[in-house]
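User: Fold this; tokens only.

Assistant: Input:
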Amino acid sequence: MAQVMPIRFQEHLQLTNIGINSANIGFSMITMESDKFICIREKNGDQSQVVIVDMADPNNPMRRPISADSAIMNPSSKVIALKAGRTLQIFNLEMKSKIKAHVSNEDVIFWKWISVNTIALVTENTVYHWPMEGDALPQKVFDRHSTLKGCQIINYRTDEAMKWLLLVGISAQQQRVVGAMQLYSVDRNVSQPIEGHAAAFVPFTVEGNKLPSNIFAFSVRNQTGGKLHIIEVGAPAEGNSNFTKKTVDVFFPAEAPNDFPVAMQASKEHGLLYMITKYGTSTCTT
């Protein structure tokens, strides 16, 4: 019987092979909100455009003459959000129509689709949620914790019910990259600062329980080494036993003193956590 691997690396495409200039391939120019689309901002001289790669048809990218500071594709549909200065706009590319627009009173330093109809907006002091439907304006969710002051914001995650929210930032301190997180409970209106670099939420049904537990996993590399922590957030569902928290050592080789976790994904189907580091090391654990 062929061995079933929990993860398989497979190259889908080289962006340079579809005409993307290598100078435009980087964190500030490319966004990938899901496995459906890659969005690239290109600048060639005075000309600016946005290139959208549909992963179902990657060899036929869509190019649009758009000038923007940032562009993020909806996770499931051909809807794009554009940011130019403090002006935010959402367009339906198939209908060639504007869905809505908003001018922020603050600089938006990070934004991300957190569902098919909601964008999270992060400013220097506050986190907002902007619903796509109707005329709804961005709604304040919580203020940023002081431990994230001066951090570069690199991610924002939510659980499925959007009752637990997580803001992730990094900063350079004492010749290493320090991770800072803010875990916020919507129901309790309480924030908890956590040292960490990458995290994920996932529903997981413990053996013997009828309902899934709301699991929060986060990884950190600090001066004492690397750890992956797996805990349950919120009260267990009625009739459920408590989830037993886990801590797993994460190995970082001595020749990579500046490596740290940058991304984490969870598979509720297989009960697995996948983590990747800045230097490309992948870790998979149950």
